[in-house]
Design brief:
189 residues; mainly alpha; 72% helix; elongated
């Protein structure tokens, strides 16, 4: 029996002994053709991507249920979490959400029309306006966050608390290494 065939048979046996997911077959297939692919790296990348697609789909379902798009969700979430009185200026919101003033105006118009926010006079600046989360907006963002959090908890319920902490530690380590060059380049500019 050739060395390559022995390795493929051994890999197949190990593959059958382990817990398998939709990525396993693909990894075994592509690594049999491309020796330069590290199966553990490829597996991690593909699994992160698959989990992200799943979470994106469930998040989309949650947003649709509550009549929100991603941008509206983010804005309502900032109002709910950034200020005790659930009020921020449109400028502060635009800066937090990295939006132009025109894009912010359009988003605020849609949310105000839906009754999820109100524009109120800024007591600190008589020319200014604050954006305030309405009672309906607060109820809607609270319900959407609660429902999505439950879906995410359910998705990760296969892990023990210790495993989840380990996963976060490892993913943080990878993300820091990816973000560090970007942040260093930005600081140098």
């Amino acid at each position: 029996m050739s060395r390559d065939l022995t390795w493929k048979v051994l890999r197949s046996i190990l593959f059958c002994m382990e817990l398998q997911d939709s990525v396993d077959f693909c990894i075994a297939d592509i690594t049999s053709y491309y020796a330069e692919i590290n199966p553990d790296v490829e597996g991690a990348v593909d699994r992160i991507s698959s989990i992200e697609r799943y979470q994106g789909r469930t998040f989309g379902e949650t947003l649709a249920k509550y009549g929100l798009n991603h941008g509206e969700y983010r804005l309502l979430l900032r109002l709910a979490t950034r200020a005790a009185d659930h009020r921020l200026s449109a400028g502060e919101l635009a800066k937090i959400l990295a939006l132009s003033s025109g894009a912010m105006t359009n988003r605020l118009d849609r949310l105000e029309k839906a009754g999820l926010i109100r524009r109120v006079p800024d007591p600190r600046d008589r020319r200014g306006v604050l954006v305030e989360l309405s009672a309906d907006g607060k109820q809607r963002i609270d319900a959407a966050v609660t429902e999505q959090a439950a879906k995410e908890i359910d998705a990760f319920s296969a892990l023990t608390a210790k495993e989840l902490k380990q996963l976060n530690t490892l993913l943080r380590k990878v993300l820091v290494s990816i973000e560090a060059p970007t942040e260093a380049a930005a600081a140098a500019s």
